[in-house]
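Troubleshooting: if your tokenizer reports a length mismatch, compare your output against this known-good record of 110 residues.
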Amino acid sequence: MPRRRRVLVASAVVAMVAAPVAAGPDAKAIYAKSCAPCHGKDGAPSAVFAKQGVRSFKDAAWQKSVTDAQLESSILEGKKGTMMASFKDAFSAEEIKALVEYVRTLAPEK
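Known-good structure output:
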């Protein structure tokens, strides 16, 4: 590779490494504000909400039974006949994906 090209490639690599990485959405903060009031700050709803059918994210069997796509759909569309409202106008696609990842962290450890 010619020297000039090597210098350009090396400069581009340095620029990419040195450039600040844009932070993704703060899923924990979004969860705390929008999800925790019903699902609980640690993923387990209060007894009052649990009696009303609010899902516990601490339920290992449920965590295994639901796909990420199903979680995204629930956040986007809500769930008819339940307290789960639609958040399609509240969150971006990136925020919803981050929330799904965060909900997965609330599963009990194996």
